[in-house]
Specification:
Mean pLDDT: 91
CATH class: Alpha Beta
Distance between the termini: 35 Å
Radius of gyration: 21 Å
Structural class: alpha+beta
Strand order of the largest sheet: 1-2-3-7-4
Low-confidence stretches: none
Strand content: 15-25%
Number of helices: 8
Length: about 350
């Protein structure tokens, strides 16, 4: 189903950008785990709009409600219902654009697929849909942290042509990432990224960037051979996020320029047992985790909605000049950080539970 993700830990999201509310149903969360809204809210607050001068001014608190699946703050093992109400929706902002397929949006493709579409704010293709992912991912993270000791931290590593130094080996925390509004913990690169975004906004334009993510303390042995390889599941998850255009793991595309003698990760003895001297594999070999940190990067395109006038055509093919209304981000990467973390958590928890349930250790 197009709105569901996962096998054992399964998430189905619902809602459009300007409907009454958005959320998710989480099925497969283990019973007996303490869970309240306070476990979920921090990541939603990091994702919410209106949090800084480089984000959309849409004013949403994004307060989550747990509707089902818990009793007295403990998970029951039954489906967990999550709801966030839309309180600052303005579908009227899009009235004049309802007959114009906006450049690089999903208006035309959704209309061709369904014969109808949500013409306000992109509907299901809007980043507003990711609220359900982030809320579900926060639950997945708690399972990973308490049951397996996994930590997931993502940050902005590039905006346009401004690239931060390599921080994948640094023991970064989310508090460090959040010290700047752009969520880049490189003190030299972050102000230049903010300046680039501010310049794009001032010109009525937008700009893209890259989010890097590291997942630490992932046990060796997670992931399934062939079609459900861990990197394949991560690529599926990341490329399902709105505005994504690229995914690479470990050495990524740079690895194509290297020789095997340099790229190979030789095994060495570490405190916990076997490990690798380098991590060009990004913590995954043969589709299965090897115990090293999982390292990957996700590229986000410039947001398609810009206020700069664009020449295009309406659904009848008539030439028009579009000046988009609405409230939008000039760059999405700083708000995408918790979304990337959430989708990584959903992949890892599903593979962890598969390993635990289907391949139990004797």
């Amino acid at each position: 189903m197009s709105s569901s993700f996962g096998n054992i830990f399964k998430v189905s999201t619902f809602g459009e950008s300007h409907c009454y509310g958005v959320g998710a149903i989480v099925d497969g969360c283990p019973p007996g785990m303490a869970l309240t809204e306070s476990d979920i809210q921090p990541q939603l607050t990091r994702r919410r709009p209106g949090q800084s001068k480089i984000s959309t001014p849409r004013n949403e608190a994004d307060q989550v409600m747990i509707l089902s699946g818990t009793e007295q703050g403990v998970t029951l093992g039954t489906p967990i219902g999550l709801l966030v109400r839309n309180k600052d929706q303005r579908p009227g902002d899009y009235k004049e654009m309802s007959q114009i397929p906006r450049p690089s949006h999903a208006d035309y493709s959704y209309q061709m697929k369904y014969g109808v579409r949500a013409s306000s704010g992109g509907g299901r293709s809007s980043a507003r849909e990711t609220i359900g992912r982030v809320a579900s991912g926060a639950i997945a993270e708690k399972v990973l942290r308490e049951r397996y000791g996994v930590e997931i931290v993502a940050w902005v590593s590039a905006v346009g042509d401004v690239v931060s130094r390599d921080l994948t080996l640094a023991p970064l925390t989310r508090d460090q990432v959040d010290e700047t509004i752009i969520r880049c913990p490189d003190a030299d690169a972050s102000p230049r990224m903010e300046e680039l975004i501010a310049a794009a906004r001032a010109e009525g334009d937008s700009i893209g960037g890259v989010v890097t993510c590291v997942c630490r303390h992932v046990s060796p042995g997670w992931g399934e051979p062939v079609f459900d390889k861990m990197e394949a599941m991560l690529a599926h998850a990341m490329m399902s996020i709105p505005a994504t255009k690229g995914f690479e793991i470990g050495s990524g595309f740079v690895g194509a320029q290297m020789r095997g003698s340099r790229h190979n990760d030789a095994f060495v003895m570490k405190d916990h047992g076997l490990g690798t001297a380098t991590n060009h594999s990004g913590g995954i070999q043969g589709g299965i985790s090897n115990g090293e940190p999982i390292v990957f990067r996700v590229a986000f395109k410039p947001p398609a909605t810009i206020s700069k006038a664009q020449h295009t055509v309406d659904f009848d093919g008539k030439s028009v000049q579009l000046e988009a209304a609405g409230r939008h981000d000039p760059c999405v990467v700083n708000r995408a950080v918790p979304i990337v973390e959430a989708m990584a958590a959903l992949v890892l928890v599903d593979l962890a539970l598969r390993q635990e349930y289907r391949h139990p250790k004797s």
